[in-house]
Amino acid sequence: MVVEQRGPEPAPAPEGPHRRRRLGLAGLLVLLAAASVLSLVVGARSLTPAEVWQGLFGDPGGDQRLVEITLIVQTLRVPRTVLAVVAGIGLGVAGALIQGHTRNPIADTGLLGVNSGASFAVVLSVYLFGLSSPLQYMWFAFLGAAVAGVLVFGLSSLGRGAGNPLTLALAGQGVTVFLAAMTTAVALGSTQALDVLRFWNAGSVQGVGFDVIWPAAVFIGVGVFLALLNLPAINLLNLGDDVARGLGVNIAANRTIGVVAITLLAGAATAACGPIAFLGLMVAHVARWFTGPDYRWLVPYAGLLGAAVLLLGDIAGRLVARPAELQAGIVIALIGAPFFAVLVWLGKFRQA
Amino acid sequence: MIETPEMHRGVRVGGWSWVWRPWIVLVTVVLTALTFLIFSVSIAIGDFTIELPAVFRTLIGQGERVDEFVIMDLRMPRALVGLIAGVALGISGALTQSIARNPLASPDVLGITGGASATAVFVVTASGGTAIANSIGLSTAALAGGLLTGFLVYFMAWKKGIDGFRLILIGVSVSAVTQALTTWLLVLADLRDVARAQRWLVGSLDSRSWSEVWASVWIMAALVLVVLVAAFQMRPMHFGDDVAAGLGVRYSAVRAILLLCAVLLAGVAVSAAGPVPFVALVAPQITMRLMRTPVPPLIASGLFGALLLIGSDLIARTVLPNDLPVGIVTAIIGGPFLVYLLVRANLKRAA
User: Fold this and answer.
1) Which of A119, A214, B102, B136 is most buried, taking the most CB atoms under 10 A from its CB?
2) What's the CATH number for A78-345?
3) Per-residue pLDDT tens over the stretch A222-271
4) How near does any CA of chain A get to the CA of B179, in Å?
5) Pick from A167, A198, A333: CB nearest B102
6) Which residues partner with A117 through β-bridges?
7) From CA B66, how far away is CA B237, in angstroms rounded?
8) Structural domain B95-275, CATH architecture
9) Any chain B CB within 8 A of the CB of A341?
10) With a cut of 0.90, is the ipTM above it?
11) pLDDT tens, position by position, B81-114
12) Which of B169, B191, B345 sits opposite A195 (nearest CB)?
């Protein structure tokens, strides 16, 4: 079993914890809104907020410049902003749920091999069926992510539940290496598959249309709903299966709901954007730092944080390599991996 | 158990003493013979087949001139690189698993593979085709990148000594960074270079030369010597740090040295053959089961690693379509084995 070391308890606020948590949630919403506006403004071509407003709601008329702005805002900036928010919520909630269900502070969709499963499925579908548009191979990515996730999750929680965080991390790593080799085997046989693979692997919210975003948003919506149903039970499951059963929790049903929710959330987000590792892990830990171990608060926090971080990561990727872009998945990995290393170094994960 | 286990006899020669275990000696001898056999078969099979007896004759210097040219100049370097990389991976894996005390650990997670991959992809994509033609430059660069990353992981994990748990998690994190960089380089690169890089990334023994063989032979021989000397001190460490300290082992220093050797050995293997997956994971575990020892044995793991790598290369050349590299075969073998290990580890804990 895994025990997470708690930091020192924060001093109780005079107004009581609930009020503080509600304020924090409101603050996160404000942050998310600000980041969304920033995301519409920043890019290869910087726009002023007034121009964005014009592009969103104004009538371009015959003015060439205004038509251009409308085009940029409506077909490039808005979809990527929406996708970053939707996928961020999905990955954030999935990260918190995975940690709650495995009782393993190291669980993350990227580390568990979900992403490499999706990559393999994408390459295989491109190779076998000659698919070329994200709308087509999105479904295969979804399937691959689901299969790999259930496999690793199931294998490492055989017996009495996922125990050692080290074993889980190594299992995920091993599955990733295996699937990467298989992906290469397919990709070496087809130049087209190789080309799709390298861009897909970077994990980007750019260049995805609403025809992909809506299905993903529906899946993530259902996933979030299931996750919310699941929340009270997670708190009890964290006391241990025996205690939870004694308190009247239907363990099998709740675990099933949890796994379905995680698969929907992470699978849909990965299918739409490509692999984005460490986001779920990172925001779950930050959220826990704000809210404490109560999952009824932790999961909403993690969802909003995930959206904000993915959005800010995407914006940062647009700024560092102008006029080219650094893909959001790469930015998040470059931020998230050191974050993870710091958690390790501080001794936040313990072998029990 | 009521009946006492059968006692093994002690052997003493001068200041050295050890326990005589016939089974372990037998398995080692059989593994050596098998490795030599598969090595010879690997040399014998190619565009045209040379009979095994002719191979043996050529190996001891009695062969015909044509055979000698084909074997010594064309096929030998490939087989030897397979042998060296296999032995290095096997021993490195056994050391990593012993230090991390986890059967799933492999030197891949120590950062070497990731660093070497990122450097190699950088070299391939930055210089185009020239780097592949000059494969020594590529393997040197990969070695440098791999070792640099390996040391980075090592020092980042240092906190009043090295602890296997922290080391591996730090390694996972550093590997993720190098992976992100590799992905980014591939996105920027020309598509033809991407195919070349991808081929290197999965590990391959194609077109090796003698100069690559000699460089890795000497480094590996030196490292194996250090490992074998230090291994005497390692045995008590399997009982835990406190017991080891009580028995007079400076466990912190021994662990640091052995880990360094594991990093360097993996670096040698990666620079010679590319990041061939799963050999370092599978070889120690299978050898341990064959030998019925409680911990991964070092020498036999190395032998089995070589057997696995050369054998996989043979399969890749004769069975697989598209001229696929050896790493695909080791992954096909290693993946299911990983699943088996996971199931076993979890069921054992539950019982």
Assistant:
1) A119
2) 1.10.3470.10
3) 999 999 998 888 888 888 778 888 888 888 888 888 888 888 888 888 88
4) 9
5) A167
6) none
7) 53
8) Orthogonal Bundle (1.10)
9) yes
10) no
11) 899 999 999 999 999 888 888 787 888 777 788 8
12) B191
